[in-house]
Input
Amino acid sequence: MSQIETFYDVMRRQGITRRSFMKYCSLTAAALGLGPAYVPKIAEAMETKPRTPVIWVHGLECTCCSESFIRSAHPLAKDVVLSMISLDYDDTLMAAAGKQAEAALQDTIEKYKGNYILAVEGNPPLNEDGMFCIVGGKPFVEQLRHAAKDAKAIISWGACASYGCVQAAKPNPTRATPVHKVITDKPIIKVPGCPPIAEVMTGVITYMLTFDRLPELDRQGRPAMFYGQRIHDKCYRRPHFDAGQFVEHWDDENARKGYCLYKMGCKGPTTYNACSTIRWNEGTSFPIQSGHGCIGCSEDGFWDQGSFYNRVTDLTQFGVEANADKIGLTAAGVVGGGVALHAAVSALKTAQRKSQKTKTKDAASKSKEEV
Amino acid sequence: MSHHTLPRPGASVFVYEWPVRLWHWANALFILVLIVSGWFIARPLPTMQIGEATHQFVMGYIRFAHFAAGQLLTVGFLGRIYWAFVGNHHARQAFYLPLWQKSWWRDVLHEARWYAFLESRPGIHVGHNPLAQIAMFLFMVVGMTFMIVTGFALYAEGAQRGSLPDQLFGWLHDALGNSQLMHSLHHLGMYFVVIFMTAHIYLAIREDIMSRQTMVSTMINGYRSFKDDDAA
Output
């Protein structure tokens, strides 16, 4: 494979017609929120640019990102994997195994030095020299550093790679560490979520291929077009929130009517993701639509933010299970009680001093009389 | 403020200029609105069926009250900071702690002993007593700054990316990492304010009765009167 094929070549080779190809380009443009003017641009890019090699490595993770990715509908994951990218190494999806697989990784790194995208699913544990996650007989952190050295850019798939997720939850015994804290000298794009939405994953890849640059990122390094708003901002139950109409119990009439799940601990107001717009499984539904609050899986440290079913959540910083209200009410109660006690003592003391004064006056006048 | 120029018994000294007094009472009102509305944002009222969701805006009005009072409080606080520069020296007292003055520390100890019933006579103070000064600084200057900053960071989420609140305060979320934690801290801050209010109102009334100078009326007419009948 001395000459890398373009996307278009591969698609035509697979029997995709020019018409289907153009359709695909418009769909992709729409999925990325781009205007019709971008359709020819995408088409041109796909006709002229060589496919971008992608290395996809797996650290501590559950493969839910991969599971989500292969369910992408717009664009179809098959299009992305077979036509758009050249997925040269992915130990979960590739046919090769063992030594062959490791050889493919090495080949890709050497052949496309500085030109490939490194997609990381999961994160490296750093305790015990990284021995909690072994890939190909070596700690994963070594494979990650090795593959990252010559990468053009890195995609951090999911909450694991972006923030650490459950394996980094307190007390984090393996010292699972998000990718950006291990690799500090490469552009990193975070695509958090547990897992991220399929269309978001393929959308990010498509954008990078089409425009040959990272999409606009927010301050945390997430693509702004998908993580620029909270679930709450675009939630179809938002009118019920503003009206003050809430589900009070899981099985009440309000739950059946589809009222806001805020009181059931929905983390929509504190979670940045595209679930309420793109939704899941070809736009079929998302957690809130199916009657359960958002658990905030695309937020940093969401496992350590207390219960999924409270808005005023436990503060683990205080060692015991206590939320802001318990701590606050206790403190306010102590101060209030102290004030009442202090007032009582103040009144007693004043009364005492007064009675002493009158006594001494009385005594003085008595002694005068006697004299 | 301390003992160098003791006022004559029965004398009145002008302490709080009108902007300080206006700020005090407006601030008290805003804080009350913020506490009540904030409580119902964290723990909303029971569901109401006044009409269709389109015609009902209960949570919306509560949030509006909270945001409006918060913005007014911020403007008031900025105005108060301005007045600390241009007003009389009493207007500056809450904004710093003279930790380097030995006499101030002596007064702190004396005032603490007075509150602990170990001194039979309170000190005499034209402005804040030193303990009150510490409380004002910690709760009003530091505490309120904390509430304003975290409040605007939370407001930035609703105002959305690229908005002015987001550009000014949005980075705090990224520094802290999680918006839910920001909510918890802002909520805890409310109790900080409640604790201050409890102590502040109690002590103002107590000192009005038991100390050697007026308290409550001073914040209304601006004059501190000294009520000693014996020599100070």
Remarks:
- Chain B has one domain: 16-223.
- The CA atoms of residues 162 and 177 of chain B lie 19 Å apart.
- The mean pLDDT of chain B is 89.
